[in-house]
Amino acid sequence: MKNLIHNLEAAWYYHQGSCQLEAKDNDAALANFDRALNLQPDHYKAWFGRGMALGNLERHLEALRSFDEALNVQPNASFGWHNRAIALGKLGRPLEALNSFDRAIEFNPCAPNIWHNRGLLLIDMGLYDKAILSFDRSLNLQPDAYWAWYNRGNALLQLKLYYLALNSFDRAIEFNPDDGKAWYNRGLAANSMGLYKQAISSFNRSIACETGGGEAVGEERVALHNLVSLSQRKVKFTPTFECQSQDYLIWYNRGVELGIKGCYSEAIACYDKALELQPAFANAFYNQACCYALLGFADLAIDNLQRAVEFMPNLYRELALTDSDFWEIRKQERFESLIRG
Q1: Among 89, 251, 272, 296, which lies 20 to 30 A Cα-Cα from 278?
Q2: 51 in Cβ contact with 64 (< 8 Å)
């Protein structure tokens, strides 16, 4: 009877601690979890809650001990292994943290947040290719997780896979258009690819979201300088279509190179080839629209812009709205209607 009363009292303190933890009152939550554990030392949920509160208070070594106590009682608790991994990561013990993430996945392979946080750890370890695989697993389970698309883009950026990074940031923005960090990093990727106008638009959007700050302003100036420098060059470029590989990215990158040198017709031909190989390549449609607009072919420009908008409406409408390539056609009814949606 005494044990029953103690257990009921422990359950009450656990409930109070859980509510306070949710309200971010970590000190009060910790006190109540301790009360629960004084009455019922094998209350593994109270040990988990105690570890969470300690982690929020940056007391990671104590948090780790709490998670270990919880896992001694309930060794197959995925939640405990997951949070133990986070604590180990905070303590600078990445290999042990990775092992804990893998144990968490062993018990719950369908938890997108575990795969995502494992990817973050792999980024910290400099294992960017493996991080991308973790983010992919997370996104297979939760395709609209903009934070996972954003961090996947960061890993690709580190590997200098700029086009793939750009696509990941585009997906992040698709699901969260006001993510200033995603716009900023999209600008970095675009700038590295020589897409200076897109970079400037992205940095502007980051600044508008009030999260890019001085860094976005500085990068915008770099992109603008690069754009002006390119426009002042008179480089003759004779394209050859005897490409060693049929990879659509090679044709796309050739189109980018030709476009920034003012060879718009040749760039269009390259984008056409890229789209033959990858018909769902939205950025190729957008760049092709820019080239047609600069050549004065308004209908073809709007046709291609519409194709890009069909894939990612918010992103490409936002870019087209501020892109100087479309200045000559922006008063046309079809263009205005497309931007309005």
Answers
A1: 296
A2: yes
